[in-house]
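Ticket #520: bound-state structure for adenosine-5'-triphosphate.
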Amino acid sequence: MADPLMAATAAPLLRIEGMSKTFPGLKALDDVSLEVHPGEVVAVLGHNGSGKSTLVKILAGVHQADPGTVVEVRDAAGELVAGAVAREGLHFIHQDLGLADILTTVENLGLHTSARGRAFAPVRGAAERRRARQLIARFGADLDVTLPVGRLSPAQRTIVAIARALDGWTRPDNVLLLDEPTAALHGDEVHVLFEAIRRVAASGAGVVFISHRLDEVLELADRVVVLRDGRVVAEQATSELDHDTMVTLIAGREIAETAITKRDEAGEPVLTMAGVSGAEISGFSLTLHAGEIVGVGGILGSGREQLAPMLFGALPRSGGRVEVDGRELIPDDTLAAIESGMAYVPADRRRSGVVMEMSVRENLTLPLLRPLRRSFGRLDRRAERAQTRTWIRTVGLRPPNPEQPLKLFSGGNQQKVVLAKWLRVRPRVLLLDEPTQGVDVGAKAAIYDLVLAARRDGAAVLLCSSDTKELVSLCDRVLVLKDGRVVNEVPRESLTEEQLVRDELGLQTAARGISTNEPE
Ligand SMILES: Nc1ncnc2c1ncn2[C@@H]1O[C@H](COP(=O)(O)OP(=O)(O)OP(=O)(O)O)[C@@H](O)[C@H]1O
Ligand SMILES: [Mg+2]
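RESOLUTION: The complex was predicted; output attached.
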């Protein structure tokens, strides 16, 4: 007879069997089974809308699974238990982070403790502030823990969410579930997060990791489970997989690498910036030409995250001059920026990109109603519907339903709508912040095609990205920001990922000078 103690240790920490979830008109999960064992990192992969976040949200109690679904978690006594008590052993970092925006970092971290029996305890003390700073400092981040979280950058908020999930551990064999935790993070911060994940796994915890960054999956996960349209289509040890095989498993087909062509001759200057300052940026100068993609790289706090919103007027600009086609732009005025021909795809789509309650069609036509106006100011509904259909096809939206409110789409599909909304206006200047954050491999190729098409159309594109691979493959040149200043400008011919990372971190390379970005 099997030793009951042995049986308990061999049992999984988390067992899901036959999990299904039906939304009105859509089966998001269909008979999914999955086990997570102690010390194991399991990656859940799949295209945008394949059901990954739905699975996590069911475990968190946000959604209820269809009848027949079994979810069990191992408790302190080694028994598999179900229901609300099972949830106590699970810790989450959700795709939308799940932070309370109006509360500070201290309070967001404290919320966790209060949920564990310290309700209404004051969390404003110096000790809590110190504790919060310590938790955050582990990730190399230095942020004001007394600011409302809503005022932090996407990467900073991610770090708060990670710190919170890692702080509430009740037993070493709890399970940590991370839904795209690295989407807003730079390589350096990812590294720190992975170290932390490895530590919790080594102590006996189970980890479920969701990411579209396949290199990360190969690096971190022991096993991958691939979802396609809500069903498990593959389950394999990572050691048996490579990048291309994973792509094929996720997409169900091979995906051709986007052929990235060199630009034609530089066009006329479109966007000129001289001595632009504000927030964490000082004295930024650059001339962007028609038909040019200029990248901006830099780690968290380098100013990279502030540049695009500042140019667009969404963040205060305290000095310097910005011109579009020779006309000066007044600072801090997004309407003036739009009028001048600027479009801005923000890193945080929930904040400034779109209206989550509105449908895809309404969101798409929001920035540019004029061409659809007929006499007496009425909208040309037929034209609106036709255009919406075209864009849905172009970006490969799933499900392709123009009337569905945006909030009901998966994260990656929301990102496609944000991009389509701004490309539709055929902008003169396209400001992109992390444009492929959270999108799957297939959609990424489609988005690169769209950006290249905008360049062919003569747009001047500024691409701010924490993804060095993206910068290297798309850009005609890349500026590297550090501590708010440009520390290097790299032309296309000499762009390599390794060099960009070195520049971003400020690591010196022998026999290599630092150039300024633009002759004044
Ligand atoms: N509340 C809801 N009502 C209706 N449909 C929903 C709801 N939430 C999610 N869906 C749909 O369920 C499907 C799965 O969505 P889910 O968010 O789980 O995808 P995902 O795999 O996490 O994708 P991504 O990689 O883009 O984050 C999608 O088609 C989505 O539109
Ligand atoms: Mg998701």
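RESOLUTION NOTES: DSSP finds 18 helices and 20 strands in the chain.
TICKET STATUS: resolved
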